[in-house]
Specification:
mainly beta, disordered N terminus, eight-stranded antiparallel beta barrel, 4 helices
Length: 414
């Protein structure tokens, strides 16, 4: 599971969850006028995030909007406010990569349909810097504004809300970017919702309702494409739908290190790879461990010098867990001797000599483990005697038996 592939795919995913609803807010027009009416809209989105897959996000958008606007009358600057609840899975993913804050921007797609004109509008939104808790869901605030609009024909106008594009940057406690960097996430609206923000009337005459910003009436325009406000839709889902969990993200590591066998008085160099598929929202992963053939020098009964060429046979896939700064990994495997010599004289060569039972390798991180960068893993294991080692099987087989063997490896993201 290549961390580099991950950060670019992410898709971001983690912090994106945080603002998907915020962007939805960008579709609301608010003037703050005493003649405006309060409007609130709830919408659900599906956002693909790096490390945690698709997430269901609920956004609550609130603003004050006019019910009527006169021909040629400017709507005033568009004010946007929204609160999005970030799910616990996103929190887990963010903390896992060391993020303590998240911030960014977004573009909210909307459409203003009025007599004689239909305007697609992308509204820029600013996602406020927000602290990421150690666990649980949390709320994120977002604000934005768009230019004023005015209309030339009377009738009914409607504003509908579309999809969202998020650009997010999670940061560590020092203010540095995490391994995710800055990423984009394209959020889609969950089908079957009423996405009508507001319906208002364009009257033949200018109504008494007026708006001023900073003491000066905003200029009007018939060509500016910002979104226009809407009234509360008659229906809106209150609970985001349950979505199938993401299949996980692929991260590939190179492996290097060694294993020491005290009873045999030798150390074996290790190299290989770990190709993992991680669901960091759940804090779990599966992995395909591949170890290269290796060679070691040992002492039989503490005296006789022996050299063995070693291969490995995996039993299924490995699995493990990841939490903030820590990781575990477990893999069962057979150890095979492909060549054994004593005093430089070969006494076995083949591919049938292996341990009677698979070794149960259990590793835990030593120091901080970064899922996007890697880290050190350590553990202990035991080996049973070997069988299938040719005519001298009764001598070679017991030679392999050993306990309290140690393994010390480093995983480095490719």
């Amino acid at each position: 599971m290549s961390p580099r592939k991950v950060s670019r795919k992410l898709v971001a995913a983690l912090a994106a969850t945080t603002t998907s609803g915020l962007v939805a807010a960008g579709l609301v027009l608010g003037t703050g006028s005493s003649g405006a009416v309060p409007v609130s809209l709830t919408l659900n989105y599906t956002c693909p995030f790096p490390l945690i897959g698709n997430q269901a996000i609920k956004a609550v958008i609130s603003t004050d909007l006019p019910a009527t606007v006169g021909i040629g009358e400017p709507t005033g600057e568009i004010k946007i406010n929204a609160v999005t609840t970030v799910p616990e899975t996103a929190t887990q993913g963010l903390t896992l990569v060391g993020a303590t804050t998240v911030e960014g921007t977004a573009l909210a797609a909307s459409t203003v349909a009025a007599p004689g004109i239909t305007l697609p509008v992308n509204v820029p939104i600013t996602v406020a810097k927000t602290n990421v808790p150690a666990s649980g869901a949390f709320d994120v605030n977002a604000t934005g504004s768009a230019p004023s609009l005015s209309f030339t024909q009377p009738g009914e106008a409607k504003i509908t809300v579309g999809d969202l594009k998020l650009t997010l940057t999670p940061k560590t406690a020092t203010g540095a970017e995490t391994g995710l960097g800055t990423f984009d996430s394209a959020c889609t609206q969950v089908p079957g919702q009423n996405n009508l923000l507001h319906t208002f009337t364009i009257a033949n005459t200018t109504p008494t309702w007026t708006t001023t910003i900073g003491g000066t009436p905003p200029p009007s325009t018939t060509t500016t494409p910002p979104p226009i406000t809407t009234t509360t839709p008659t229906t809106s889902p209150s609970t985001p739908p349950t979505l199938p969990p993401g299949e996980g993200v692929d991260i590939d590591y190179g492996l290097s290190g060694s294993s020491t066998l005290p009873r045999l008085g030798g150390t074996v160099p290790l190299s290989g790879s770990v190709d993992a598929k991680a669901n960091l929202g759940q804090g779990t992963f599966t992995a395909a461990l591949a170890l290269n053939k290796t060679k070691g020098d040992f002492k039989i009964v503490g005296v006789l010098p022996a050299t063995a060429e070693i291969d490995f046979e995996m039993v299924g896939q490995g699995s493990g867990t990841m939490s903030a700064g820590a990781a575990t990994f477990q893999q069962q495997l057979y150890v095979k001797l492909t060549s054994v010599s004593i005093f430089g004289l070969p006494i076995y060569s083949g591919d049938t000599c292996r341990t009677q039972k698979p070794a149960d390798i259990k590793l835990a991180s030593s120091g901080t483990f970064d899922p996007l960068g890697g880290g050190k893993l350590k553990g202990t294991y035991s080996l049973t005697r070997a069988d299938g080692c040719g005519p001298l099987n009764d001598y070679i087989g017991p030679f392999v038996f050993s306990q309290n063997n140690t393994i010390d490896v480093t995983l480095a993201a490719k």
